[in-house]
Amino acid sequence: MRRAVVVWTLVTIGLAALGPGLAVGQTASELTVDELVGRALAENPDLMAARIEVEAAAARVQQAGLRPNPTLELGGQKAISPDNNLNVGLSLPLDLNGRKAGRVGVAERELDARRRQVADRERRLRADVRMKAGEVLAAQRSLRVIDDLLQVNRDGLALVESRVRAGAAPALEESLQVVEVNRLDASRQLAQSRVEIATLQLKALAGMAPESPLVVKGDLAPPPSSLSQTEATRRSISERPDLAAARAEVAMAAAMVKKEQAEGRWDASINVGYQRQDFGFNLNGLTASGQARPIQDVFHYFGGGVSITLPVRNGNEGSIAAALAAERAAARRVEFVVLTVQQEVAAAFTQYDAAQRSLQVYERGVRDVARRNLAVVRQAYQLGRGSLLDVVAEQRRYIEIENGYTDALKQVYDAAVDIERAVGVADR
Question: First-to-last CA distance in the chain?
């Protein structure tokens, strides 16, 4: 009877330790999931690189708006005689028939596409951080359950050892308790490694160094989504960044068609020049006053002209055809992305509903039943109708159910994150 009282006390303490209100000590390095998302959006190196690419695209817009530079030509000739020539010419391309507008249009559409791509990376990064943080929270919850059970069983082992030494309990009970403590200790090592690995991966997403201390605050209970599936689908099609980026690619392809068409039209350059010619003959002539002088003088010439490029043999037909094909391909990709978005939204809501139903079963028909079953086994042991093995087995079954409940919480959490990822706009 005294042995039953000891086991009764140990199991009661274990049940109290398994409750959902487990607490952990807070440290200065604790961050919530939302704080981690904000830090990742500000410091993730890959996202920062994408933003720098936007700056490069903006610089290309500036470059596309610049006119071609003029060309200065200098030349001269020197004969064996005193004769010599000096030539100075300036050529200015006119950049006609929409060439500048074509370049600027392509650069502006590229800038818009880059910005949309950065927004899509932010969407995916938010979801990745929340998903990885959920993995850390689930691992931390499992570790707390194991830690509390391990402490209870270690305390129980000390009591059983003292009873065995006093001859009040058989040595088999001590052996059973030692096995249970060692099993929980091994499980704790694995659970601890899962927490550490998930935390390291989360640090990488948040732009934190591996040695930086981090504890994730919060629980696996995200607020329910206020969007219906119909509204979520509508918002995703109108606002999701990757779909907007695909549409920007279509606009850029259309701008490229106009640019290539402009390059295939005629163009012209204005030319102006100056020539200084020092020229004469090895003879003497007479001036107006009748004096003799060498026939030698300096002549100055000014001129100008227009050079026209005629697209007779090369109208840029190949580049135009390639640009038209690229525009058609971009339009087809938009259609595919729309279908993908609709499928992802539907799948996310389906998974969320199924995960919620599974969680409700655990909360209403599994955990309570498991507690009652353990209580029945405990009472049977107390009345001498069971063994310590029955109590240990039921306790292990209860632990499995608690781990299953953690998995159900994680599935609901993941499904909520998937809805946010699929819609593309944070609903918080």
Answer: 56
CA-to-CA dists, residue 320 to 104, 106, 155, 253, 331, angstroms: 17, 14, 81, 11, 17
Q: What is the CATH number of the domain that holds 195?
A: 1.20.1600.10
| 145 is a domain residue | yes
Structure pTM?
A: 0.79
pLDDT digits (tens, 9 = 90+) for 324-335: 999 999 999 999
**Segment 256-269, tens digit of pLDDT:** 999 999 999 999 99
How much is the average pLDDT of 338-348?
A: 95
Contact status, residue 240 vs residue 341, Cβ threshold 8 Å? yes
Nearest-angstrom CA–CA distance, 253 and 264: 17
Q: Which domain holds residue 30?
A: 2-64+96-266+310-423
Do residues 393 and 333 touch, judged by C-beta distance below 8 A?
no
**Phi and psi, residue 116, nearest 5°:** -65, -35
Please list, residue by residue across 294-329, b when 16 or more beta carbons sit within 10 angstroms of its beta carbon and e when fewer do.
Answer: eebeeeeeeeeeeeeeeeeeeebeebbeebbebbee
Q: Is residue 84 part of a domain?
A: no
Overall domain count for the chain: 1
Residue 238 covered by a domain: yes
